């Protein structure tokens, strides 16, 4: 089975591989830097979901894998709070596209203010934590949950939802 991953982000790659390896054998992985065709910092659930779908479809078009994944992180406003949101999509060769969302959590106002001013979460988190490439490791979720949930784990839940939808379709 050829599994195509529409990112070079190691946290997202690990999430996909960790879950796919639980359900399938003899898997070959290919990673591509698939375009999301949305803003660098998606600012709604709709835009974040669309970014994940675009990544999955663009990955399918480039690789033609059996399973083609796109994962996208973004933010959205709700009741004067800015929430981190995450979406995933799985595109199949027959044109079927599944999507699923994962955990959402409110960002501290100091971070939300920077994002509302037009900055992207990754660099804002690096500045806030005085670390580099937080998006490749624990991510904002790891920082703001005191390490209880990291970015890979957060995306694993989404990948499991996508694989579950695929397995349901196959068994139908």
Automatic annotation (TrEMBL):
GO terms for molecular function: ITPase activity; metal ion binding; nucleotide binding. Keywords: Hydrolase, Magnesium, Manganese, Metal-binding, Nucleotide metabolism, Nucleotide-binding. SUPFAM superfamilies: ITPase-like. InterPro entries: ITPase-like_fam, NTPase/PRRC1, YjjX_NTPase. The keyword Translocase does not apply. Its EC number is 3.6.1.73. GO terms for biological process: nucleotide metabolic process. The keyword Coiled coil does not apply. Its cofactor is Mg(2+); Mn(2+). Residues 6-161 form the Non-canonical purine NTP phosphatase/PRRC1 domain. It holds the Pfam family NTPase_I-T. It catalyses: ITP + H2O = IDP + phosphate + H(+); XTP + H2O = XDP + phosphate + H(+). This is inosine/xanthosine triphosphatase. It comes from Ureibacillus sinduriensis BLB-1 = JCM 15800. The lineage of its organism: Bacteria, Bacillati, Bacillota, Bacilli, Bacillales.
